[in-house]
Specification:
Length: 258
């Protein structure tokens, strides 16, 4: 775990109140794995730092994707290129790609794409076939997957990567929930990875088609310290009490009580 002041190399509002920051953070970039996060200090008015998923890594840089959810992220959204953020990480246990897995399905509910982009890029770089289901309420809430603000890099060729959109109102792509598309894309899938709201996870846990497919979930929960000291993010699992920041945020779907 490294603590540093990271210069902001770019700060883009990719959609209303949703921001993509690229930071110079070589010490963190060198150690980061998909699914891990950093803690960001958000001003004197917020006592606790905010956990943000590592969205991608590019050489000495990391990217953070976040939406304004409260006082801390509202303060953070005012930062511009050239400013400096006080961060520490990488923290937590991330996603694990089994060596024998060849075909991966990633399911993102809204801002759940934040940690899944990093996972998709690493998997594609290892020669895995990656399918992403990206769900949102409407097309206005869908994060961009095409240039110039694409969430995925140009190295992902159509042969190894595809992204399917689902919107609840049908304004773009499939009309319905991202979970409704899962059965249609499970053929030959070796592992499923997801990030999204708890309601999405509850639906997934009740799907018979997922019972035999190893599935990993990234839990979104309030954290105090990010390092397992305060016990503020303790949850009950089938293996006893666990801390999301230290034991997670990624858990096997069969291990958590949904």
């Amino acid at each position: 775990m490294k603590q540093l002041k990271a210069p902001i190399l770019s700060a883009l509002e990719v959609m209303p109140e949703t921001y993509l920051f690229r930071l110079e953070a070589p010490e963190i970039a060198a150690e980061a794995r998909p699914g891990q996060f950093v803690m960001v200090r958000c001003g004197k008015e917020t006592i606790l730092p905010r956990p943000l998923s590592i969205h991608s890594v590019d050489g000495r840089q990391i990217a953070l994707l976040f939406s304004v959810m409260g006082k801390g992220t509202a303060w953070l959204s005012q930062f511009k290129k050239g400013d400096t953020l006080d961060i520490f990480g990488p923290l937590g246990n991330g996603y694990t790609i089994a060596p024998r897995s060849k075909n991966l399905l990633l399911v993102a509910g809204g801002m759940g794409i934040a940690p899944l982009r990093f996972l998709a890029e690493v998997a594609a770089g290892e020669g895995k076939k990656v399918t992403v289901i990206l769900g949102a309420r409407s097309c206005d809430c869908l994060l961009p997957v095409t240039p110039p603000q694409s969430l995925f890099n140009r190295g992902m060729m159509p042969a190894s990567f595809q992204c399917i959109n689902a919107t609840e109102d049908g304004s773009e792509g499939f009309k319905g929930l991202a979970t409704q598309l899962i059965p249609h894309y499970l053929e030959h899938i070796d592992q499923v990875f997801a990030c999204g709201p708890m309601a999405m996870y509850r639906t997934m846990s009740q799907m018979p088609v997922l019972k035999k497919v190893p599935t990993q979930l990234s839990l979104e929960i309030m954290m105090g310290c990010g390092m397992g000291v305060c016990y503020g993010c303790t949850i009950r699992t089938k293996k006893g009490l666990k801390q999301v920041c230290k034991d997670g945020p990624v858990f096997g779907m069969g291990d958590v009580q949904l």
